[in-house]
Amino acid sequence: MISDEQLNAYRLSGEKVRVVRDAIEANDIRGIVVAWDDTQVLIRRPNRNVVKLDRNYDIRPSKEPRVSPLD
Fold first, then answer.
1. Source organism's superkingdom (predicted)?
2. Is the pTM of this model over 0.70?
3. Angle CA(45)–CA(21)–CA(28) in degrees, nearest 5?
């Protein structure tokens, strides 16, 4: 699970993140961290929709290469 400090750094910088949910790259969520609690994180997508996701997913900067959860 990603730490509160790392989520706060992403929120303050406005850096786009990638949330890898499964092995299919098309299912990744990209956007900006808006808010979070103990179990979930809110990501604002480029089309301004907000998605609520589990914090146990792999959350990394969007500019980094994708890491498959199966590796």
1. Bacteria
2. yes
3. 40
- How many structural domains is the chain composed of? 1
CATH, residue 51: 2.30.30
3-state SS of the chain?
CCCHHHHHHHHHHCCEEEEECCCCHHHCEEEEEEEECCCEEEEECCCCCEEEEECCCEEEECCCCCCCCCC
Q: Which of 52, 56, 58 is nearest to 35 (CA)?
A: 52
* Tokens standing for residue 41: 């994180």
pLDDT digit string (tens) for the chain, length 71 residues: 899 999 999 999 999 999 999 999 999 999 999 999 999 999 999 999 999 999 999 999 999 999 888 77
